[in-house]
Each structure stands twice: as C-alpha cells, then as structure tokens.
Amino acid sequence: MAGLLALLLLTATIAAEAAGGVEGRWLTQGKSGVVEIYGCGDGTLCGRLVWFRIKPNETDPLLIDRHNPTPALRNRSVCGLVFMWGFRPDGPDSWGDGSLYDPESGNTYSGRLTLNPDGTLSLRGYLGISVIGRTEHWTRFTQALDDCPGE
C-alpha cells in the first residue's frame, strides 16, 4: 500500500511540474494568437502558431507566409508555422539563444523566454543585443481551439 501511495504521489508531482513548465499552449499578449511551445528533440524549445484571430475589418488577412524572404516558402500556411526555434536552457525558468520569425515582416530576430513566478511567460525578441527589442507577456491557454482561419 505504501508503495502504491508513493507511486501516486510521484506521478502527481511529475504531472504538476509538467503543467507548470514552459511547454504547452500560450495566448499571446494581444489575445490574437495561440502558440504551442514544445521540445524540438535536440534539447531546445520550439514554438508553432496553432490558432490566430482575424480582425473583423481585415480586408487582406495574413493566411500564408507571403512576406517570407525565401520565395519558395511564401505559399505555406501561417497556421502550424514553426516560428520559434533553438531556445536553450540558460538558467532557472529561462531559455536563450533562440530565434523568432515574424511572418508579418519576414524578419528573424534573436529571442529569449522567461517563465515568471506568476505563471506568465515573457518572450523577448531583439536585434543584436537584448536591450534593443520588445517583450510580450503571454498567459497559459488551456481551452479547446477552433480551426485556424482558412482551414
């Protein structure tokens, strides 16, 4: 009985740690997209866009990666697009050395992630040095998702 109890406690602890980690779905700061962060398989973190909102008055929504600097990639869907990659652990609850691709501009930036004590996630994108950049704060997203627009 004690062994079963210990196993249940260990399982609950592992599940709680996994739920509180950086992997999972996150609602962007402007509530216009949901990003799934996952392990890339090489010890780094990646992120893909799993849902986004089109504004009601949008006349030309960005459904494909039309601003990509590589012409052969301009017809791919932005839904499911891996736009974050290479984030390596560099401290407690922080990952750096990552790259962020912005499909709205076609530019790629350096980036870092920080899991905050309040459970939010800070994503900093920058050029060259971290001081020159922008930070967004994302919240965990656990609700069911509709299909992406255009799918």
Structural class: mainly beta
> What percentage of the residues does DSSP assign to strands (E)?
35-45%
Q: Strand arrangement, largest sheet?
A: 1-2-3-4-5-6-7-8
How many domains? The number is 1
Q: What's this entry about, in short?
A:
The chain has 151 residues and is mainly β. The protein has one helix and eight strands.
Explain the overall architecture.
It is built from one helix and eight strands, in the order αββββββββ. With 151 residues, it is mostly beta strands. The model is unreliable at 1-19 (pLDDT under 50).
Write the layout of secondary structure elements.
Layout: H1 2-20, E1 24-27, E2 33-39, E3 45-52, E4 82-91, E5 94-102, E6 107-115, E7 121-126, E8 133-140
Antiparallel strand pairs: 1-2, 1-8, 2-3, 3-4, 4-5, 5-6, 6-7, 7-8
